Amino acid sequence: VERTGTRTEFDLIVAGAGPAGSACAITAARAGLRVLLLDKDRFPRHKVCGEFVSAESLHLLRSLLGDHHRHDFATRPEVPAARIFLDGKSISLPVTPPARSIPRFDLDAALLASARGYGVCVEEGAAVRQVSRNGTFTVRTAETASAGRTVVNATGRWSQLTQYDVAAKEKWIGLKAHFRETTPANSVDLYFFSGGYCGVTPVDAQTVNACAMVRSGIARSLEEVFAAHPELWQRSRNWEPVFPAVTTSPLYFRKPETCDQGMLLAGDSAGFIDPFAGDGISLALHGGALAAESLLPFLAGKCSLEESQGRYHTAYVERFAPAFRNAARLRALLAVPKWIRSRLFGVLGTRPLASLIVRGTRAQVR
Ligand SMILES: Cc1cc2nc3c(=O)[nH]c(=O)nc-3n(C[C@H](O)[C@H](O)[C@H](O)COP(=O)(O)OP(=O)(O)OC[C@H]3O[C@@H](n4cnc5c(N)ncnc54)[C@H](O)[C@@H]3O)c2cc1C
Predict the structure, then answer these.
(1) Which residues, listed in sequence order, are joined to residue 214 by a DSSP beta bridge?
(2) Measured from the CB, is residue 28 less than 6 Å from ligand 1?
C-alpha cells in the first residue's frame, strides 16, 4: 500500500468484502498468497437480503470460517419449509436439506474476521475508485494505491467498478428490516403481488426479517409493500421494527459475465440471480472461492492470466449458468396473466415438480 511511499505487491487484490470477496480472499490466503481485501463499508452492517442461506453453501461457509471465528451459526434457525402466498392461494414446500437464516450483520462480519485470521490484509471504509493495468494492476482508493498481480472484482451488483448499460431496462429496488413477531413460523414465506414480492424469514424466537424486491413505482417503503398483499398486511399489523429499513441501489438482471478489464468478476458483480431463488449467497461463496482457485496456476507461474480467466469462465458456466437460466424462467412465470398463473400455480405446487424447480435454481456445487 502506497501510503508510506513503500509499495508492497500483493498476489491478489479483492475489491468488495461481501460473501464473494471474503470467500475469494480466504481461499487465496489459505493457499499461501499475499492478499489485500478492500471494502467501502465498515462492518458489521445491515444489508438488504432475505438472509436465507441455502444448504448448498453451509458446508463451504463452515470451512471458510475455520477456527478463527467461532460464530455458532448452528444456533441460527433452520428453515425446513417454504410457503408461497399468491393470488389468495398458498402452498407449502419442503426445503431439503434445510437452509439456515443468518443475518448479514453477523455473516459478513464473521467472514471478514476469518479473512483477517488467515492473514488477509483488510481495509474497511476503503472504496476502490479505479483499477488500471500496466503489466501488474494498480488499485486506487481515495487514500491508497496498491499493486497486485491479479484483481477480483466482488463489489456486488452496482458499484464504481460494476456498471453496465442498463438503459430502458425495468428497474427494481430492494428493502429490508427486522421486526418483532411472537413465535415466527420456521419457514421462508414468500408473498407475491403484482410488481414484486416480500420474503419473511425467522431471525430468532421473537424476530423476523422482511425483505422485499419491488418494481420501482410500486412501493417505496416496507409499509407500502405490506399493503400490497392482504395476508402479509394482516400478519404485519402488530410488528415492531428492530432497526430502520435499509434499501438497495436499483437491481437489474443481465447475462452473467466472468471477466472485465483483466479482473475476474465474482458473486453479484458476475451475475445477479433472482433473490427468491435464495441462492445468491451460495453463488457468491462458491464463485469467490472458484475465482481464487482459478488464479492459483497463474500465480504459481504455470499458465498465463488469460488461461486462468478461461478456466474460471468454463467452470462458472458449467456450475452456475443453469441456476441463472432457471431462476429467470421462474421470474418470467410471475409476469403471465393472473388466470394462467393461477392454473400453473396448481400444477407447479405439486411436490415432486416443485422440488425439481428448486433444485434447478441451485448452483451445481461439489
Ligand atoms: C431483495 C434481495 C433479497 C435477497 N435475498 C437473498 C436470500 O434470502 N438468500 C440469498 O442467498 N441471497 C439473497 N439475495 C442475494 C444476495 O444478497 C447476494 O447475491 C449476495 O449478497 C452477493 O454477495 P456479493 O459478495 O457478490 O455482493 P455483496 O454482498 O453486495 O457485497 C459487495 C461488497 O462490495 C462492497 N463495495 C461496493 N463497491 C465497492 C467499491 N467501489 N470498493 C470497495 N468495496 C465496494 C460493498 O460495500 C459490499 O460489502 C438477495 C438480494 C436482494 C436484492
Answers:
(1) 173, 196
(2) no
Could you tell me where the beta strands, DSSP code E, fall in 128-256?
130-134, 136-140, 145-153, 172-180, 187-193, 196-204, 207-215, 240-241, 246-247
Compute the distance from residue 155 Cα to the ligand 1 centre, in Å.
8
Provide the Cα torsion 141, 144, 147, 152; round to 10°: -30
Q: What is the pLDDT of residue 357?
A: 56
Range 264-285 average pLDDT: 92
Distance of alpha carbon 245 from alpha carbon 297, whole angstroms: 44
Per-residue pLDDT, 32: 98
d(CA 50, CA 67): 27
**Per-residue pLDDT for 41 more than 90?**
yes
Is the beta carbon of 213 within 6 A of some atom in ligand 1?
yes
pLDDT at position 4 over 50? no
Compute the distance from residue 248 Cα to the ligand 1 centre, in Å. 9
d(C-alpha 265, C-alpha 313), whole Å = 10
Residues 6+ apart with CB under 8 A from 32: none
What's the gap between Cα 45 and its chain centre? 15
Contact predicate 64/46, CB 8 Å = no
Number of the ligand 1 atom closest to the C-alpha atom of 20? 25
Sole residue written with cell 458456466:
317
In DSSP terms, 35 is beta-bridged to 12
Residue 187 has pLDDT above 50, yes or no: yes
The single-letter DSSP state of residue 167 is T
Ligand 1 closest atom vs CA 54: 11
pLDDT digits (tens, 9 = 90+) for 291-300: 999 999 999 9
